[in-house]
Every structure is written in structure tokens, then in C-alpha cells.
Specification:
The protein has helices at 34-41, 46-53, 58-79, 141-148, 151-159, 162-183; strands spanning 10-11, 22-29, 88-90, 96-98, 107-114, 117-124, 128-134, 195-196, 204-205, 211-216, 222-229, 234-239. It is an alpha+beta fold. The protein is 32% helix and 26% strand. The strands form 4 sheets. A 5-stranded mixed β-sheet has the order 1-12-2-6-5, covered by helices on one side. The chain has 2 domains: 22-131, Ribosomal Protein L22, Chain A (Alpha-Beta Complex), CATH 3.90.470; 135-230, 4'-phosphopantetheinyl transferase domain (Ribosomal Protein L22, Chain A, Alpha-Beta Complex), CATH 3.90.470.20. Helix 5 (151-159) packs antiparallel against helix 6.
Length: 240
């Protein structure tokens, strides 16, 4: 799986600094004990509470509250403010960004979750997008790859034995989605983003060489990817 297996998830230092050539990735476990969930809920804004209440399943509601509360806690640490003081505005497709109040910080971030795990990327002065996927069983990987992927990507998927197909399919998917989230575009553009990868080689974004693509293995049976504008970034991975 190349270099992406080597990232260690460490405990973050108390005084967090984010240098211009760094990117920080946070791994967040979303299943939290009830008292912590209640404490996190108190940090949310009224519109976030309203959004949480719209989820039909309790489990989805709890994951949203935990994810958003921990996101606020993490961003608050970089900004030096309480979690409830963090303010968001939303891009047209619903992607949260820091409100203008914090424009001086030049922080950019992106959050993604799948099942009980979330990943959050934090960067300075750079567009960033992140995606995590739980590698669920997919009934027809080849048909999906043919429909959503570029011809060369589909050819790679088709050439592999079944047990490798699924992992490569999800690697393509997370890489594409991370880049689309970074540039603020929806999944309709999936086949227009071309990625070069193989079971042995890490992913490279062919569509735009000014971007870095870094693959992550957050846990067994999960894959992740982060897309960030620019090159030669130092990656730090924190466990929340």
C-alpha cells in the first residue's frame, strides 16, 4: 500500500502550532460515552442542534453531535477560543468554513465521517478536502467503476483479482471525493477527476498537478485520502 501505511496517530501536544508547510490530520472516534456527548452538545449552535434533531436515527444524531462538537474543540485549540465561540459559514454546497471573524487565522479545514470514524484535516492558507470510507461490501464494483471512473481507472479495477478490486475501488473513490470537497464541487464531477494508482503505488492526481494527494489508513477496513493545494507538505496525524 505504499507510504500511506506509515502515518502514526499520536497524542497532540497541549500547545498546538500549525506551520505554513504543515497539514494536521485528526482521527476521531465518534462513539462516545453519554456524559461526553452531552458536554459536546452544549458547544453547538442553535442551527446545529436543529440539524441534529432532523436525523431520523438516534445513532446518526449522536454521530453528528460528536463530530461537530469535536470539530469545534479542535478548531478552538488552534484559534485559542472556547469550542462554542467557533463560528461557521457555509458554502453553497453546505461545506462549513470558518466565519469571517476568524479570517486572520488563515485556517482551512475539512471533516469527513463514515460509520464510527471521522477524519479532520486542518491546514493554513491552503484549500483542503478529506474523505474517509468504510469499505463495505459492494455488489458490483466493476459496474460502478465503469459508470463513475475514467477509462484508465476502470481498466485498473477490471484487471485486478476480486479481493483487491474493492480496496482499489474505495481508494479511487476517497481520492476523488477529497479533491472534489477541496474545490467545493459535488460528486457529479467524479469521472472528470483522474487518479493514477495501483495496489503497489500511492495515488497521484492527474487532473491537476498543483495538488497533493495523500492516502491514509485510519483503521482496518477503512480508507482515507486528503487533497491539499500545493506540494511538499509535512503531515502530522493526531488521535483525538
Amino acid at each position: 500500500m505504499g507510504s500511506e501505511t506509515n502515518h502514526l496517530w499520536l497524542t497532540a501536544p497541549t500547545n498546538l502550532t500549525l506551520l505554513p508547510d504543515e497539514m494536521h490530520i485528526w482521527r476521531i472516534e465518534l462513539a462516545r460515552p453519554a456524559p461526553e456527548l452531552q458536554a459536546l452538545q452544549t458547544t453547538l449552535s442553535s442551527d446545529e442542534i436543529a440539524r441534529a434533531q432532523r436525523f431520523y436515527f438516534e445513532q446518526h444524531r449522536q454521530r453528528f453531535i460528536t463530530g461537530r462538537g469535536i470539530l469545534r474543540t479542535i478548531l478552538g485549540r488552534y484559534l485559542g477560543v472556547e469550542p462554542q465561540a467557533v463560528q461557521f459559514t457555509y458554502e453553497p454546497r453546505g461545506k462549513p468554513v470558518l466565519a469571517d471573524t476568524y479570517s486572520y487565522s488563515s485556517l482551512s479545514f475539512n471533516l469527513s465521517h463514515s460509520q464510527d470514524l471521522a477524519l479532520c484535516a486542518v491546514s493554513s492558507n491552503r484549500q483542503v478536502g478529506i474523505d474517509i470510507e468504510h469499505m463495505r461490501s459492494v455488489s458490483d464494483v466493476e459496474a460502478l467503476a465503469e459508470r463513475f471512473f475514467a477509462p484508465r481507472e476502470y481498466a485498473v479495477v477490471r484487471s485486478l483479482p476480486p479481493e483487491q478490486q474493492k480496496q482499489v475501488f474505495f481508494r479511487y473513490w476517497t481520492c476523488k471525493e477529497a479533491y472534489l470537497k477541496a474545490i467545493g464541487v459535488g460528486l457529479v464531477q467524479l469521472e472528470k477527476v483522474e487518479i493514477s494508482l495501483t495496489p503497489e503505488q500511492p495515488a497521484k492526481l492527474m487532473t491537476d498537478e498543483k495538488w497533493s494527494l495523500i492516502e491514509l489508513l485510519p483503521a482496518s477496513n477503512y480508507v482515507g485520502a486528503v487533497a491539499v493545494a500545493g506540494q511538499n507538505l509535512h503531515l502530522k496525524c493526531w488521535q483525538y
